[in-house]
Fold these 4 entries.
Entry 1:
Amino acid sequence: MATYDGPTELTTILPGAVFGPVLATSTIGSVGIVQRMLSGAMRGVPRIGLEIVDVRDLADIHIRAMTSPRAAGERFLATGEFTWMLDMVHVLREELGEDGHRVSTRRIPDLAVRLAARFRDPSLRDITPALGRRNRHSTAKAHRLLEWQPRPARETVIDCARGLLAHGAV
């Protein structure tokens, strides 16, 4: 870019927690949360919520931003519906039948998560600030300028789980 003399246009997109169908299981990122739920590795559910965005909707907003002159120089949030992890596990149990039998619906109290982060599992320290927090960011600009609309979190979580099961990742 240092040698480029033409005009530039930059648009940035900040996604929420990305779930949805998986194409491969070699790098699954945030989908690992659903994988841990399905496998039973997550033996309890902390009081954490996520603004879930479907990977298909994330691709859609990128394409809309690339093809719309209105997106030039703008920043967009690509977050979907806020969903507590406890609601996610209930959806998985309800919709997947036998495939969801290992999904734990046991709640883990905030104090237990904090104690475990301090004394047993330092990797939990990153999540303790999110305990009980209900973040909700506005995607109104993406709706207004790009006519972007994410799909419901329930659909995204189920499609994510079915993709993991189909790929034998659980």
Entry 2:
Amino acid sequence: MTSTARDAALHADAGRPSRREQILQAAAQLFAERGSRAVGVDDVGAAVGVTGPAIYRHFASKDAMLAEMLLRISEHLLAGGTDRVAGTEDDPAEQLRALIAFHVDFALDNPALITVQDRDLGSLTDADAAQVRRLQRRYVEVWVGVLARLHPGADAAACRAKAHAVFGLINSTPHSAGRLGRPAMARLLADMAWAAATA
């Protein structure tokens, strides 16, 4: 899989990314491999074929790159999850399948971003981290609403715990995605996520 496909959540046109998008993709891969603190602006510039100072035409700092990529993926997940459940409120099973398929696609396309999110969220400014967490909580609540309709006897705390457990399973792609071809891995993750969410 190319880095463009792998980091598709960073931009709308995965086939023709702008220089800004290329920088974000390269930064995501480098941050995933080394950690954001170990990567310099010159490293990111070299990865996209420009000098380090040229990066400053697009981003004020390395921290600004990190903030934008984590905010974007949080916005992407919230918008995508909300779209998947719209118009099917009377069928929570269908909603859950749609959410699982959406999140599996995201996880398979973006293992580098998952690694960066897990490891480098704490490197954001307090304001940026708070905004990311607000978006993430809203995405979790999309899942909680569906799980609560699917399991009327479960309380919100149990549904929230179940949603986080399913995310952990699906977001294992940085460690598991290369073990099978994409279609087989997508089916495996979807089947396991469905079993966990409906247990």
Entry 3:
Amino acid sequence: MAEHIFHLKANWPGLRNDVGEIEAGNLVTKISIPPEMDGPGIGTNPDEMLLGAAATCYIITLAAMLERSSLMKESLTMESEGIVDVTKGVFTYKKIIHRPYLVLKSGATKKDVEMAVRLAKKAETSCMISRAIQGNVEIELQAAVDVAVE
């Protein structure tokens, strides 16, 4: 069994509404509580980072699957949304919605489009972060696939 170990350093010098820093490889940023939760909104926050982890894992997984399947893409973009429920002062990360938009190269067949749609669904269940939060945070997929016109 091989393991990959990732490291993060954090510094929080103040109180609740102050600003800290994190550093993990190329990720170096300030952190604070978001304004939606009555914080200063400086740098990033755990809610954005969970959304970012889920989105980057998904889009990289999908790109790798497309490559292995020899599906040629013109572009792959995505918007994702994280929904946090607040009930009686308790914050619960409820749902993540991924909206990938894949444009296949011109000349792609109906079969190519169908395979791309299947891969878009499979990437969500194959992504390591999706699997890590499974059962705690719902992940919804709203994928769109088009073919570029010449």
Entry 4:
Amino acid sequence: MSDEIDPLDALDDAAAAAAFRRLVRHLRHRHDAQNIELMGLAGFCRNCLADWIRDAGFDGDKAAARELIHGMPMDEWKATRQSEATPEQIAAMQASVAKNAPDTR
């Protein structure tokens, strides 16, 4: 294991928070980018971000975290934004997630 410090850890918390908020707002706007597609390409999605804010200390439950990230309750998101995943999307997601580091699952 390397003793090097990751420069990301030196990033000012205010700058990191601003970038995170910009990412979330971008994903809220780009609802055409389906979670299954994000998972297939990058190995994470909006729901992962909701899990990560809970891991980082967000006091709300899973539903509250997802509502914060999605900008609406999960049931509303699914009804108005989510389409049915294809077998190809599911396969791509599974292959992509398998590449994730253990601490990002």
